[in-house]
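Same chain as my last thread, 122 residues:
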Amino acid sequence: MFASATTASPYVKSGRIKALAVSSAQPSALTPGLPTIAASGLPGFQMETMTGMFVPAKTPQAIVNRLNQEMVRVLKQADVKEKLFNAGAEVVGSSPDELGAAVKADMARMSKVIKDAGIRTD
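reply #2:
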């Protein structure tokens, strides 16, 4: 089963399921010592869940910057980071440009997977 860390963490902690590997490109602080799938025999495997805040494309840059500044400020607070970490989420708190680049990279990577696998909508 592939499950997000937020979904699987309570079951792993209780011993009801056993985590075998993480699907991110790098090991996760959420699961120290757990290898990546890529390091476990599937080189290049990467699948991560991103959560971001998006606004309409024509939102003034000053508003985008202010929203980002406030969100990053809150996400950097120790109690917020701890609550999210305990829920199975690693906080990044990046810039709008960094989030945009990550989304574009993920779309390009997944587009290749879809094309190579011959996946189609009917």
